[in-house]
Design brief:
This protein is mainly alpha-helical. The protein is 78% helix and 0% strand. Keywords: Coiled coil.
């Protein structure tokens, strides 16, 4: 009987150890399944060959657009430079016009003063006397159109 008890204990120990091994293996299998799922999720995120081709095409388009943008920026800088030159020319011409206008008005004022001075010498009142030549045979009229001569 002792022999049977000993055998039963051994069998129980073996059963316990086998159960522990099974639990460990189940845990290992569970961890490996989690790793597999994680790798599958990563694999799903990795683009396929058709996406790689599309990416290459889009990168080419992006490069072309960047080249166009660079060229357009250079053109814009050129146009801004031209605009600045035109604005400087406009400012210069406005200033020149202002100077010419000042010179013109100064000369005009001086000439009108000279004329006034020359007229002042010829007449005492500063105005030139104009004498109307009247024909005595013609009728004379005043503001209302009434004839002043008797017929």
């Amino acid at each position: 009987m002792f022999h049977m008890l000993e055998k039963m204990r051994n069998l129980q120990r073996r059963l316990i150890s086998r159960t522990e091994e099974v639990v460990e293996r189940k845990e290992t299998v569970r961890r490996e399944e989690e790793d597999i799922e994680m790798l599958e999720r990563k694999l799903e995120r990795i683009p396929g060959p058709e996406l790689q081709e599309q990416l290459v095409v889009h990168e080419g388009h992006l490069r072309d657009r960047n080249d166009q943008l660079t060229a357009m920026n250079a053109e814009l800088a050129d146009y801004k430079r031209v605009i600045d030159e035109y604005q400087a020319e406009i400012r210069r011409l406005k200033k020149e016009k202002q100077e010419v206008m000042q010179k013109y008005y100064k000369q005009k004022k001086q000439s009108s003063q000279n004329e006034a001075a020359s007229r002042g010498k010829s007449t005492a009142g500063g105005q030139k006397k104009v004498k109307a030549k009247l024909n005595p045979n013609m009728p004379r009229y005043t503001g209302g159109g009434f004839c002043l001569t008797s017929t």
